[in-house]
Specification:
Blueprint (H helix, E strand, L loop, with lengths): L4 H10 L2 E9 L5 E7 L2 H8 L3 E4 L13 E6 L5 E7 L2 E11 L10 H15 L1 E17 L5 E5 L15 H13 L4 E6 L5 E6 L2 E2 H21 L2 E4 L13 E9 L17 H21 L5 H4 L9 E2 L1 E2 L7 E2 L10 E3 L8 H18 L16 H6 L3 E2 L4 H8 L3 H28 L3 H7 L4
Parallel strand pairs: 1-6, 15-16
Antiparallel strand pairs: 1-2, 3-4, 4-6, 5-6, 7-8, 7-10, 7-11, 7-12, 7-13, 9-10, 13-17, 14-18, 16-17
Helix pairs in contact: 3-8, 4-5, 6-8, 6-10, 8-11, 10-11
Family: Belongs to the glutamine synthetase family.
Subcellular location: Cytoplasm
Organism: Pseudolactococcus hodotermopsidis
Length: 446
């Protein structure tokens, strides 16, 4: 049921809300906010889409001579946070960013995803659903409250307390998410020490991306309350698994029927599913800069740690890039396993949707599934069946991004230009840095 301005005004009074967070996401995927007192005057401005902020201070937004931007709140994202103080509670709204002339701002990732969804409707589909599986690490804080790389448990996959000593932290995170309206499906310790996963039910992609942003905020806030630091960095420690964010995707048609399911199709998948899959695989190398956007992301995408490295798909096999989970009917979906939680969810899903739609429109044929363990295949064996690698560095990924018209169009000129420039600066800084590994391996040798 849609939330109205009347509902929001009532809840502010009934629940003693004293501050409002107007939240939006920058091009790098960082959640930003303007916090204002919940007075009648400020509330009138917010609900009339008249809340202005300086966009020139936000990474990749606008130049200083174009700084005035407006926040248009999505009332359906209204939440009241469970934290606050004796002076009252804090509530929040996720917002779209608009230009002063009332047009959507081209650099707003959330608005960009809406543009992709409008294209999806033109192609003939009603909704694009996402079930994300974000992973994160919990580390101890030092005496000054700064994060360390020391984990607070020695747990493994699905372990229980006392080996998993973060179960109380996870449980409180789940309770808070549930209070905020999330449908949490599972919570467990992941494979690596200190690593955790909380899965929430699939929903339409815009809501799912909103949920990812709020999820990260909740996880970090509750972790801090327990004396821990939560990070969604893709590979914070050498020698153990990194953190992914598997994306379970499905398209629904105008009759609210899962367009990926066909009881009579091969593997009970429809032609639409195979063509969407074909589009994903054809563009995978070129969209990796968006789904894995940091230098550190490529320390995760290496053999031996369960993250996918090769562009292929399968049913039961978990080594390829895309897997088709066993559920059929309404639950038929494609699971993309390469995405990591440093990705801007709005940008990543806009690109994935457009690549899938390209496959549907052009009827791109998916290659044969690969049910063998690809990690055990030689390079020649992989080449013989047409399996290519994902990019090995952010530098290579960004170069590939600039060569794909579908991916570039999915981002739009403003986001593409600013994203590429930011990543070029990031890579140049990294390329000049002398790491401890280089000192350890070369100093005494040469």
């Amino acid at each position: 049921m849609a939330i109205t301005a009347v509902d929001i005004r009532r809840e502010i009074k009934e629940k003693n809300v004293t501050f409002l967070r107007l939240m939006f996401t920058d091009i790098l995927g960082t959640l930003k906010n303007v916090e204002v007192p919940a007075t009648e005057e400020q509330l009138d401005k917010i609900l009339d889409n008249k809340m202005m902020f300086d966009g020139s201070s936000i990474e990749g937004f606008v130049r200083i001579n174009e700084s005035d931007m407006y926040l248009y709140p999505d009332l359906d994202t209204w939440i009241i946070f469970p934290w606050g103080d004796e002076n009252g509670k804090v509530a929040g709204l996720l917002c779209d960013v608009y230009n002063p002339d009332g047009t959507p701002f081209a650099g707003d990732p959330r608005g960009n995803l809406k543009r992709a969804l409008a294209h999806m409707e033109e192609v003939g589909f009603k909704s694009f659903n996402l079930g994300p599986e974000p992973e994160f690490f919990l580390f101890k804080l030092d005496d000054q409250g700064n994060p360390t790389l020391e984990v607070n448990d020695q747990g493994g996959y699905f372990d229980l307390a006392p080996i998993d000593s973060a179960d109380n932290t996870r449980r409180e995170i789940v309770n808070v998410l549930t209070d905020l309206g999330f449908e949490v499906e599972a919570s467990h310790h992941e494979v690596a020490v200190g690593q955790h996963e909380i899965d929430f039910k699939y929903t339409n992609v815009l809501t799912a991306c909103d949920n990812i942003q709020i999820f990260k905020l909740v996880v970090k806030t509750i972790a801090r309350a327990h004396g821990l630091y939560a990070t969604f960095m893709a590979k914070p420690k050498f020698g153990i698994n990194g953190s992914g964010m598997h994306c379970n995707m499905s398209l629904f048609d105008q009759n609210d029927t899962n367009a990926f399911y066909d009881a009579n199709g091969e593997m009970e998948l429809s032609d639409t599913a195979y063509h969407f899959l074909g589009g994903i695989l054809e563009h995978a190398y070129n969209f990796t800069a968006i789904t894995n956007p940091t230098i550190n992301s490529y320390k995760r995408l290496v053999p031996g740690y369960e993250a996918p490295v090769y562009i292929a798909w399968a049913g039961r096999n978990r080594s390829p890039l895309v897997r088709v989970p066993a559920s059929r009917g309404i639950g038929t979906r494609l699971e993309l396993r390469a995405v990591d939680p440093t990705a801007n969810p709005y940008l990543a899903l806009a690109v994935l949707l457009e690549c899938g739609l390209d496959g549907i429109v052009r009827k791109i044929e998916a290659p044969a599934p690969v049910e063998n363990n690809i990690y055990m295949m030689t390079e020649d064996e992989r080449k013989a069946v047409g399996i290519n690698d994902l990019p090995s560095t952010l530098h290579n990924a960004v170069k590939a991004l600039r060569e794909d018209e579908v991916v570039k169009s999915a981002l739009g000129e403003h986001i593409l230009t600013n994203f590429v420039e930011t990543k070029k600066v990031e890579w140049a800084s990294y390329a000049q840095f002398v790491s401890q590994w280089e000192v350890d391996n070369y100093l005494y040798l040469y």
